[in-house]
């Protein structure tokens, strides 16, 4: 049988990096093929070459046995290649149907398009109302728009780029059903991910990339998640130490009935959020992206206090009415999700970035003047303690890789010995080595008696690190649950917006469809 | 040959310094061509405006006197521009600063004492600040775009100037000319080099450059400005408040524009007249950017733009260039600077050669791969 697509010696060089170094592999018709690798391994570059966004410097692509020149995404679609990107390109204020029409090269008449869309929705059992406005949809539903868009072109090869990073466990199951059905009809799927358990559950074969090269091809069913991870990073994974047998002390951080109105037009309002975290405890907050995580972090750190109600107490001190600097002085540190431009200024040196958040607790400024040598010293100590790969305290934050900058930011906050550390997505887009280092650092900080609030979309990370966990959905925080007794199904339902245990599981997707028609 | 822009991996430090030079040279070349096409002696105009004053020692003092207010205003504006606070109202703040100083001068006309000049200067600074406070209030309270509000206030300041010099402040013995009385010796800026035009404002501009440099590089307030300009989210994360940044930027910008105004009034003018505003407030925007918002760069840029004022005057008389020509040259300079700044983040590559290189290197890489 001819392979659906075969890559031969694909090479792509960017100034200073060899992003793809003679990549060769093939995907068979009807095969679900995983492309696995860390950030920076060259997956995105390769996929962009296949989809015609980038051109290879050398090498050859054969599609259904014929040599193919993919000069643009339009040519790729004409060949029968569809792609669902990680970041959706949707207009919030328009309907599903309008968005689908906008994404097509030659959209048919409206009524005909709607009929086609409904046929695709029916034949793949996708729950989606074509007339809903996009801003009312969940992330899973938005992804379905992109999938429908791709399926309308009747692709022979569908590329899925990190499709599950924003989905609840139930939505992931739904997606997998669709993909399996597609594959059984002969469509090949190139599935890009670094989530190993999913790849084991879904994929027939996996190509593993590291440093721009293919390092292995394997059958995921026959491998363990750990063995694939080790192929991916090219070394042994370190276990997190000191996770078990932690002792939890007295309450250090209390949030009572916190409510904050959302920023118009699409911001999430926080609604009556209460929780407390004790010394030595890691309190996990799970949830699908965009359910109020950023708003919660901004309200707790003091960056957004407009219209805030409720009470925030740290070590018995009420800090509700203090700003960012006052809260830092009281012992609150925070690490927002976005490194570049939020937790750090890319265009400034690491020493200046130390001044940004550590100037009060580490006395890096006095009487209105910067203490630049003290800042350099502190930055250097962070660099060495957190093994940050950087040219030194004078190096620009923007010149660091994602993982190294995240290690620096985490180190900067942790070395201020905070009473309470708030962290959002600490290992987002970070290589596995840096991620395990960061997780270990959080565990160590908790062991030293700090209270940690960990906001993450990565359930595996939350389950591995937290002592208790709660779920945030549309600005509401669920009751906290003990990590030892909680089930993934329960978390998934809460993430999908089903509150209380009595409702049937099927209520979640059904709610979405009936809304408009009824 | 097809020229194409390609993103650099890092901003080029060389280009940060080279682009102002490229802008000046391009302005000279294009300016010469433009005025030749318009039927003037283009090359002569460029020589007259940009070269001749440099070789005439008598004009050097003119340069310094024109550069001083430009530098002062630009130094103040650069603080705001670093923080993305776009104060376009320096012209109005300059006028109001001059008017405030004149007001003190008229009140103390009959008096004598060393305190009078400092009182005028203080009034000038406060006047500029007060006028800049209007857009600051509008911005922080009602989110009114400061570009529009500060720009429109320039015209209000002009009308205020016309009203005062033609009305209540008109010199009763001035043959009905719309201007105030001449200031007394106590109210006039002393010369620092006797026998020249060089007044106290020139060394003040130099000292201010040092002060602003210190403020930007060494103080928390300056740090705050820079962070706000580069990453507003990070500034909030760092505990800095936006409204405070806007206020600091507007007050420093307005204060220095006001200072420049009162020094001009008490120096070269020696009175207040409707001809007081000469566009320094607008030209200073070009100075700030040509000087890369850096205090010492601004001093250099102020001298370059002062050339256009000094040379422009002689070009008008010598080769009958229209007075608008100076504005054309100044605008071209900003235009080409902004264009040349593309080269800081991008470089020009020749597409055809790049492609042929790629083709020729292809077999080579294949071979090495096989060898490996």
UniProtKB/TrEMBL annotation, chain A:
InterPro entries: AAA+_ATPase, ABC_carbohydrate_import_ATPase, ABC_transporter-like_ATP-bd, ABC_transporter-like_CS, P-loop_NTPase. Its main location: membrane. One of its GO terms (cellular component) is plasma membrane. Pfam families: ABC_tran. It is a peripheral membrane protein. The keyword Repeat applies. The keyword Coiled coil does not apply. Keywords: ATP-binding, Cell membrane, Membrane, Nucleotide-binding, Repeat, Sugar transport, Translocase, Transport. Residues 5-236, 253-499 form the ABC transporter domain. One of its GO terms (molecular function) is ATP binding. It is found in: Cell membrane. It comes from the Bacteria. Belongs to the ABC transporter superfamily. This is Nucleoside ABC transporter ATP-binding protein.
Automatic annotation (TrEMBL), chain B:
The keyword DNA damage does not apply. InterPro entries: ABC_transp_permease (IPR001851). It is found in: Cell membrane. One of its GO terms (cellular component) is plasma membrane. The keyword rRNA processing does not apply. The chain crosses the membrane at residues 21-43, 63-81, 93-109, 115-134, 146-165, 197-223, 244-263, 283-309, 321-340. Keywords: Cell membrane, Membrane, Transmembrane, Transmembrane helix. GO terms for molecular function: transmembrane transporter activity. CDD domains: TM_PBP1_transp_TpRbsC_like (cd06580). It is a multi-pass membrane protein. It comes from the Bacteria. Its main location: membrane. This is Nucleoside ABC transporter membrane protein. It comes from Consotaella salsifontis.
